[in-house]
Every structure is written in structure tokens, then in C-alpha cells.
Amino acid sequence: MTRSEWLKDALQIPLPEDPALVLSGCRRLLGPNLFSASPGAVGDALCPGRDPEVVLQLWLDQVRSLLEDLAWQDPSLTERRFDGGASIFLAAAVDQLFSAAYVIEAGWYFCACGLLGVVPIPREALLADLRSILAHETNPALAALVAGAETRGIDRLLDDDLITFGHGKASVTWEVDSPPVAPDWHGIHDLPLVLVTGTNGKTTTTRLIAAMAAAAGLVSGLSSTEFVKVGDEILEQGDYAGPAGARLLLRDKRLELAALEVARGGILRRGLPVTRAQVAVVTNVAADHLGQYGITTVDDLARVKLSVHRALRPGGALVLNADNPFVVSAAPAHHPTMWFSLSPQTAQIRSARARGEPCGWYEADMLVLSDGSTETALIDARDVPLTLGGAARYNIENALAAALAARGLGLPDDAIRSVLARFRSDPKDNPGRANEFLCNGARVFVDYAHNPHSIAAISSALAALPAKRRFILLSHAGDRSDDEIRALVTGAFALSPDVVVVAENPKFMRGRPFGALPALMRARCLELGLNPAAILDAPNPGDGAERILDALQPGDLALLLVHDNRERIFARLAETGGRTRP
Q: How are strands ordered across the β-sheet holding 172-175?
């Protein structure tokens, strides 16, 4: 049994069960995170009906008391309040992370027992267990390795069993339980690396940056919600926008430049995967997945996304969207920032140009970049296929973000420009993002947009294209609130559809009764003024897509918002003569 396997089950604390006092999660954060640039552990507690301030103070008191009894060196605690609860974060060395999590849980145990009048197990017995865990986890050789890497300015990637220093072709990996005492640091170093996060656009931006690096002659790789890829080889298919995908990519010895898509869930569950990125991008922030891990507002979510700045090396730059008020509000002060905007008049762009700082903007159909002294009209947006002739303004933003990030990574403008001129919204370059097909003389777009912000963006872009009739396929998972579902439909109506097909999503009911979600979407369509006869039903997204494809005539336009049955829909498009638009 490895050390980590033993530690995971080393202690079972009998937390009292009460719906008004719930420890909803206690987890290790292996890298920089929402709370700190240091690793550590965090617990989230829910206390509906109680004063969260009182609960938090009692919990903090218990944690501090345990840390004192354990003689914990230089304890650093950070608390966070949210609607209906609170979180405590304890910074910890890489060989104290399990121990830190158990201390937070034990503190909650004594806090909850006191509030509920439950007699706890003897304190000394629990302290003895904690001391045993702390002694078992302590790994001086590992701690010395991490310190040696930090002194040399070398990044690290940590998981339960392995630790990696450097990136890709310049990396080395050792077992956590048997690290070398006197390692040879020669040849170990970091590679150009960018983190990309945001509510929407992060996958497209990640793919653009990796393509720009490849165009510059480098072996580039990316991890994303779709796959992990090095060069032309897909290493794994699936959602790898978390630390596991980053580790898989950055341990590949072929790699010369990396673009990591970083999702909200990964940041909150395990922290950021690296500590010394060269660039970090935040594309935008909008309401999505609220209510998890104590993140209850869009402002909270913005702070989660902007925590990528803690994973930058000294002098590393943030690339931020000056048009997104949540990004602007959460941006860290006094940090090197390359702003981008759809207007040269945005306050951040005007200020950056006046101070001679790098930035990018859209003006008179051109994507313009400034390095602080020279301004370059990089490319006409109408010559960037992703923008649909300039109509898809969200992809103008993504192109600006990718171009600034590429410059921050040291890539030449020729490579940046060439990729923007050829990169398409098709299943090869950008699968699932406004993939366009011709079918029976109609234009068909397949997109994986899944929240109100992204659905409104793609619908608004396609509304600018001429069409005789407009069709849209709507379906979704059942774990969204009624308000979110209504907002999804409202966003889709930016397309001004003539026909809407609402489809059940049987694989993703997630607590909803059959028919409830289509009924909710149908009702919202009626509220928005659509004729009842123009609202069609389907038992699943595949059947819904077929209803639309069967009805298409020359000059029509269809948007298929697909979250399931993707392969079936693409196969049907191929069978009916659908082809990717050149």
C-alpha cells in the first residue's frame, strides 16, 4: 500500500448528522487556488438557519486549538463567507496536505458537536490519530525537492503518487514515496505554458494558441474539455480541463509548448496544476454552475477564474477581457495585464496605450495589437473564418485573447496571423464550436453551447446571417434551475427562430421527471411569442435534429445545440449529403 492510499482512509471522523450543520466537502488543493498561491486543504460548511458568522468563529477556534496542540509550524488560515455557509483554508506543505484536511474536518467535528449538544469522542484520542497521520505523511526528501525546485525557478506538478519538475521534454518525474536525495537538476526547466479559463471561449482559445505554436514550428500540446493532444496525436479523449489532463500533457517528453484549458471545477476541487505559467487568459465570466463549493454569485465565480494569476511565474502576464465587468472587477491590482476589447475606447485599453503597456482591440474591422510601443493591424476580422465574416463577435474576442497570449509566449506575428486566417469552425480545427455544414442548400450549425451566455452569443451571431427560415434545437440536462432553463431559451431567441424543436435528454434527467424540461422550454417559447404550431417535440436530441434536417429547404438556417447524440447527428448530416462548408 502506498503512503497516499493509507492516508486516504487513515481516519474516519463520525460527523454528527444534522441538515442545519453540514460539512459539504473537505479536500486537498495541490497547487495555487482561490485562497492562496500555496497548496493546502479547504472545507466548506453549510449552516442554513444558523448565523454563519457564529458557526465560522467556533469552527476557526477549534481548528486553531488543534493546530496549537499539534505544534503545527506557522499555521496560515483563510476564511471565506458565502450565503448560507463558510469555508476554511489551511495552507500546507506538499507533505502535509492530508493532515491539513483532517485537521479542518476534526475542527468541524468538535464545532458541530458543541452546537448540537453531542458528546464528542475524547479530544486526546483524536489528537493522537492526527499526530500519527502527520508523522506518517511527513516526507522530508519530498519537501527538500520542492524547495530545491523553487530555488531554481522550476515548476512542479503533484499528484498522489508522482511529482514532476519542469515541463515536457525538459521534465523529470519521480515517485512521491521515493524521491532522490541528491537529484541532478541539469536539463530540467520550464517550457512556454499558458493557462486559459473563462465561462465561454476557453476551448477555442486554447486550440488557437496551440495551433499558433505549431505554426511557429514547435511541438505544441493542449489539455481541454474534449481531449489531451500532443502534436497530431490525441492522448486521451474526454473532459481533461483539470489537473489530471495537465499532468498527462506536461509529462509527455515530446512537448515544447503547452496550452492548458482550466475549468472552474478543477480549480475548486484540486487547485491549479502548475505554479509557474508564463501567461494566463480569462476569456470572460458569466453565470454558470453557481451553488457549488460555496460559489453562489457571479462575482464569486470571477474570483475563482482570476485565481489563475497565482499560478504565474514572476513577471508572467494576465490576458483579460476589458469588456466583461466581472473580469474587470476581479482583476488583481498591480499585476502585469494585457487587456483586450472590442473597442479602442474601453477604459482599460485607453489606459494601457497611454502607459505603453501591451494590449489588443478591434477597430474598423481590424484586430490590432500593441506591444506598448508599436501598434500592429494584425488581420481583418472578415478574413478570420471563426468570426463568420465579423458576425461572431465572441470569436473576435477569442482571437484577440489568443493572439495576445501567443505574443506573451514569444510566438511571432506571422504564425499568429496564419492560424487566424485558416482556423475554421469545423470538426477538424474546432469540433463542437459552431461547426457549419451545407445540407439540402441550407446552412446547419452544430454547437455545444450550454449556458445562457454562450447560447445567446452563438444565436446573436447567426442572426446576422441571411436565411429564409430559422430552426433551432433545444435540449439540456435536468440539473439546471428553472430560471436557468428559461434564460437558455431566451438566449436562443436572439436567432429569431421560426421553428423550435424541444428535445428530452434521457441520459441527463438528473432528478427531473420525464417531460418536465421540454414543457418548461415550450412554455418559455410561448411567452416569447412563438406560435404553438412552430414548437415541435422530440424524445431525444438525435430525433430532434432529424426532424429539423428533414424539414430543411434551400436558403434555410438551423442551429443544433447538441449535448448528447453528437455522433448520431454528425453521421446523419453525412448520410443526407451534409458537408462541412468550405
A: 156-158, 162-165, 172-175
